[in-house]
Amino acid sequence: MKAHLLAAAAMAASLGFGAPAMAAGSLTGMVTLDGSVPAQCSVASDVPGILLFQTTVQLGDIADANGHLVSALATSTNSSAPVATFQVNCTGAHNTATLEATPLAIAPAPAAQTGYSSSVAYTAEADYAAVSGTVTQTQASNGGTSSPTAAFQFANQSGNLAIKAYAFDDGNNAANILDAGAYSGVITVVITPGA
C-alpha cells in the first residue's frame, strides 16, 4: 500500500499536481510608432525650407548685325534645348503645376515707333518628368497663367523639371529693329504639392 501511495505521489508530481503555482500564460505588450510625411515639394539644390528656386539665363545679344531679332531665337521650336532644368522632390503623388510667362521686354518701355520693337513674345514650356511619362505645359508670354496640370507624381531623377522658351517674335521679325536696352522676361512655375 505504501508502494502504491508513493507511486501515486510521484505520478501527481510529474503531472504538476501539488507543484508550486506557475504563471498561467505569457504577457504581451505593444508599442505603436506613428509618423507622418506631409505633402511637400523642394528643389534638390535649394536651401531647405525655402520654397523658391530661380536662375537667370543670359541670352546675350538678341539682335543681329542689322538690329533684327537673331534667327536662332525666331526659328526656335519646342525641340530646342531647355534653358534651365531643376530636380524637384515631392513627397506626394498628386502634385499640380501652373506656368506663367512675361515678354522679353525693356522696362520702362521707350516710346513706340513704327518699325521698332522693345518687346519680344515667346512660348514658355515646362516639361515635368513624371512616373507615368512626361507632362508638358505651355503658356504664351502674355502675362497670363496657365490652367493647372492634371495631378502627377514627379519621377525621382535629376532634371525632372525642364523649362523651355522658343518661337520668339517681336511682331515682325523680318522688318522690325529692336530698340537698344536691357530686355528681361520671367517664366514662373508654381508647383502645388498633393498627397
Describe this entry's structure for a reader.
There is one protein chain. With 195 residues, the protein is mainly β. The protein has a single domain, classed as Sandwich (Immunoglobulin-like), CATH 2.60.40. The protein starts with a helix and ends with a strand. Strands 2, 5, 7, 8, 9 and 11 form a 6-stranded antiparallel beta sheet that branches. It has a two-stranded antiparallel sheet with strand order 1-3. Strands 4-12 form a two-stranded antiparallel sheet. The chain has 2 helices and 12 strands, in the order αβαβββββββββββ.
**What is the CA-atom radius of gyration, in angstroms?**
35 Å
Low-confidence stretches: 1-10
Rounded average pLDDT: 89
Instruction: Find the count of extended strands (DSSP E, 2+ residues).
Output: 12
Structural class: mainly beta
Tally the helices.
Answer: 2
Spatial shape: elongated
The oligomerization state is single chain
Strand content: 25-35%
State the name of the first-level CATH class: Mainly Beta
Share of helix, binned? under 10%
CATH architecture title: Sandwich
H and E string? HEHEEEEEEEEEEE
Would you give the CATH topology?
Answer: Immunoglobulin-like
Number of domains: 1
N- and C-termini, Cα separation: 82 Å
Q: Give a short account of the largest sheet.
A: 6 strands, antiparallel
List the keywords.
195 residues, 2 helices, disordered N terminus, six-stranded antiparallel beta sheet, mainly beta, Immunoglobulin-like, two-stranded antiparallel sheet
How is this fold's topology laid out?
Elements: H1 2-14, E1 41-43, H2 71-74, E2 84-86, E3 88-90, E4 96-101, E5 104-106, E6 116-117, E7 119-130, E8 133-140, E9 161-169, E10 177-178, E11 183-184, E12 187-192
Parallel strand pairs: 6-10
Antiparallel strand pairs: 1-3, 2-9, 4-12, 5-7, 5-11, 7-8, 7-9
